[in-house]
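Researcher: Here's a chain I'd like modeled. Treat it as a single chain, no partners, no ligands.
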Amino acid sequence: MNHNVFNSFSLVGNVAKVNEIKKQSNGTKFRYFTICQNTKYKDKNGEIHDEPNFFDIKVFEKQFKYFEKNLEIGKYINAIGKVKVYKDKNNKTILSLIGSDSRSLQIENQEELFDYDWLNETDNIEV
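Model: Modeled as a single isolated chain. Structure tokens:
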């Protein structure tokens, strides 16, 4: 198995928030940014709903250069990285997204890319 793919993520969306650069107790610099994805779907009555999903991504200093051009609020990007799971001081499981690279996406009509009408196509199919 390719370990570069194991526990990885690839998110496409708009940059919603960019936090300030901070330092950990060991001196390592990092920052968080948030990607928003809007999921559109039709309910049983044919009404279209737009459901936003927000994802916080942590970027360490060594990866800043891969993100600096793309961390602009509203910019449409693809962010990739790894998923890290750990326990905090209270033994609570934490899932964290650690960014490793990003690229800017230029799509003229984003509505067509995220057309979720196909999700409801199987509603009336008998099995």
